[in-house]
Amino acid sequence: MANSITKYLANVAGVLTEKFYLMSTAGVGDIDKPVAVDHTTGRLDPTLMPGGSPINTSAGAGSAGILPKLDAAGKLDITMMPSSVTAEALSVVTSENLAAGAVVDLYLNGGVITARNSDATSAGKEADGYVIASSTSPAANTVYFNGILSGTTGLTVGAVYYMDKTVPGGLVTTPPSATGNIAQRVGKALSTTTLNFAPGCPITIA
Fold it and tell me: Over the Cα atoms of the chain, what is R_g?
């Protein structure tokens, strides 16, 4: 009974003949034959797709002709993009544990660019970028330099945020005002969980 939905009638030399819809293909010999989706998944078998199963990262020329698919974040991987399109991000080592959504400072540590939490307490830890995934030092993390900061919560929509001096890597709506503190605009909240990252020039409070 299960196969009845995969059958059709075809005129073969003047005789009506029962045939099966294709669930998979062996190649050229199946040209012009009708296709059915899989009974279990409701999807096309990979052999029926150009190049086989879709991929979410590209190996370059060797991936020509294969259908792309979205990654775990629901986006196209950067390797799918033309060579002129690059992410404004950098994978760097860390000297501190970083929380998802943390604003970070990049500094030279033993000749190596390293990420740490930004801190408005004093000069030297200004906001250079942000991370969207947490990491435990010294594991590397990807630092983004523009775009939408996500991973944080409790933001006030439309509010302007600054570096925090109490929570490393954190954000506050009121800039610090004590002598020696750093007031630096980080961006504006677009929702309770996202912020348009647009850092301003850090100012040392006199």
Answer: 27
Q: In the predicted model, is pLDDT for residue 5 greater than 70?
A: no
Residues in contact with 90: Cβ distance below 8 Å, sequence separation at least 6, in sequence order: 113, 129, 142, 143, 145
Residue where a domain stops, chosen among 36, 53, 80: 80
What is the rounded CA–CA span in Å between residue 143 and residue 57? 20
Domain limits for position 25: 2-80
Instruction: Give the tokens for residue 191.
Output: 């929702």
Give the span between the Cα atoms of 143 and 133, in whole angstroms. 9
Structure tokens at 12: 């073969």
Q: Which of 33, 51, 80 is the last residue of a domain?
A: 80
Ramachandran quadrant class, 26 (left: phi over 0; alpha: psi -120 to 50; beta: rest): alpha
For 158, left (φ over 0), alpha (ψ -120 to 50), or beta?
Answer: left
Question: What is the tens place of the pLDDT at every residue in 185-203?
Answer: 999 999 999 999 999 999 9
For residue 50, what pLDDT is reported? 78
Q: Return the closest-CA partner of residue 186 out of 198, 170, 174, 168.
A: 198
Output the pLDDT for position 149: 94
Q: How many domains does the chain have?
A: 2
Sheet architecture: strand order including 171-172? 147-150, 194-197, 185-189, 160-163, 171-172
